[in-house]
Amino acid sequence: MSAAVYSSFFAVMGASSAIVFCSMGAAYGTAKSALGMVAMGVGKPNLIMKAIIPAVMAGIRAIYGLVVAVLIAAKIKPDIQIRNAFQIFGGGLAVGLSGLAAGVAIGVVGDTGVRGMGQQPRLFVGMILILVFAEVLGIYGLIVALILVTQQ
Asked: How many CB atoms lie within 10 A of CB 61?
């Protein structure tokens, strides 16, 4: 059975979706949480190192997308079957969109949590806990993407 002419397109779009959407989530999360860090740092500069955690956690999103995009790129062949191409596309979308959602969640929680931590330092543990809950959204997408991309 011959591959459809457009099969490679969907596989490449999977790789593109993985890195683009994850990077968008990472960029938004980093920027949003950094705003809170700077606003809080004006009044409490001694808490800056604790406040950087949400920005770092948001940046991890892009690594998830990069890993999946590299795995997808290794699977793309000129004669890829349409079923495999759609499976790869789905994997790229899974990690990309979940990475975007996780990045937005981390950014909002990081911004608000860091500002709150500037007023009440005991909020730090609660903020980290909520950040972990937001983080696993991206991990769920990564797991689904790895299963879809590696299962041929």
From this structure: 34
